[in-house]
Description:
The protein contains eight helices and eight strands, in the order H-E-H-E-H-E-H-H-E-E-E-H-E-H-E-H. It has 198 residues and is of the alpha/beta class.
Amino acid sequence: MEIPGIDRRNLLTQLFPSPDEHLFISGLAGPARDAAALTADGDNLFTMAGTMGAAVSMGLGVALSAPHCNIAVITGDGELLMNVGALATVATQGPANLSIVCIDNGCHGETGGQLGHTSHRCNLAKMAEGAGFSSVMSIASPHEIAEAADFLKAANSPRFLLVHVSNGPPSDYKRNLDPAACRLRFQNAYLKDLKKSP
């Protein structure tokens, strides 16, 4: 398998150059740190802490309850595989405002770097297609990031973007780990975006 050349620390700022235009839900661990670095751990980000596998389901709920807001889920390969059936629910519900970005490093970085299923034969993009997503894209080169950013803007929703990244550290960002405070600030951002909706 060819070693991908995408540095995850430089990824999200290129995919989401205007992060204030989205509400973000992230999985735990690395994706949560990457998303926190993108938003400066802002009010428009809700990150997981110990709830592995919940990001896509929570993102779907937010998307359905706020149909005029842009919702983006930032997850990892290991986290997504804990609840991969959620992709079928997303495709069935078909929200017109949801993007899912899976940062796939092929290993479990938080528990020692053990190889994950996607380092072998598992292909999460094909799983999204099989679940019923009409818009699926997979990238593995820095030269493809601009095209992926356009995909997240223009492709029919729900969208699934799989990004194969090199096996390096996530963003070096210390996020707020107080779940009550994070919930309240995200609630405020959510309600503020709802007020702006037509």
